[in-house]
Design a protein that fits this description.
Order of helices and strands: EEEHEHEHEHEHEEEEHHHEE
Number of helices: 8
CATH superfamily of the largest domain: P-loop containing nucleotide triphosphate hydrolases
Oligomer: single chain
Number of strands: 13
Radius of gyration: 32 Å
CATH architecture of the largest domain: 3-Layer(aba) Sandwich
Mean pLDDT: 89
Strand content: 15-25%
Largest sheet: 9 strands, mixed
CATH class of the largest domain: Alpha Beta
Low-confidence stretches: none
Shape: elongated
Distance between the termini: 112 Å
Length: about 325
Amino acid sequence: MNLLPVQPAYQLEPQPAAQHWLIEQLWSDQAVGLIGGEPKCCKSILALDLAVAVASGTPCLRRFTVSRRGSVLLFAAEDALHVVRRRLESIGRAAGVALEDLDVQVITAPRLRLDLHDDAERLDRTVATLRPRLLVLDPFVRLHRRDENASGDVAPLLDQLRELQRRYELAVVLVHHARKGGGHVRAGQALRGSSEFHAWADSLLYLRRQGERLTLSVEHRAAPGIDALALRLRTDDEHLALEIVEAAPAPAPTSPMPVPERIRQVLATASGPLSLAALRDASRLRKSTLCQVLAEMTDRGDIRRSDTGGYRLAAPPT
């Protein structure tokens, strides 16, 4: 009889194993996970950016270091092959890598269904032959004909991808849509369909759009996330790629103007002598502070009292 492996509690490791990354801070090594978001949030472009980064060893989004470079296997169900090529080429230019130098293998079959035994077997054999570091499937809705809201339908398909990950030691990126009205809830809860998706993911990248602004949030099962990133899609003749929008630096704090200087400025711009009340209103100083500083400035000869009792700057010596 085969027993399950067991170990005495006191022999368990006292510290967790060190966190290993495929892409630093974005995707754990050999992790299964999701890129989620509403339609037109650049989920597919983000998935291709991960693919270019892993295949070339260049930083993802030009910031996040790739720890383990390797080949990529990609299935883009909703885009024509020439569109996939053009996008990979554009992201490669942004990363400084030529398309012919990218080890990205694109599945050109018109259909791939995880719920069909033959298709699942063909995917398994392809992964076994190519041994990619990363498998990208975009999007999940095109990979089956099951009910995404039913845990019993979704779980077996996700288990297949987990089995691929474990057997061949690769990472799996699955692009998935958000549910309607999910704009104000946590990223994992905004995913469309069963809660199995969120529970399954080791790493989760979630995109939200407000007008032209994109926000990327990051979650991990075994590591802390990072602060949300502002992104924009750069579109010009040479590039079609996401880039991080750097936050504007906070203005340097300014030192408050000394009280005597403030009084000098007010009197210098006045058309004539100012009464104590008018000077207090213009300088926005407390009466006690104003009176004390006026007395000091009068003693030094910086200001003078007029015949009507108002204050004016002393005339410079001739």
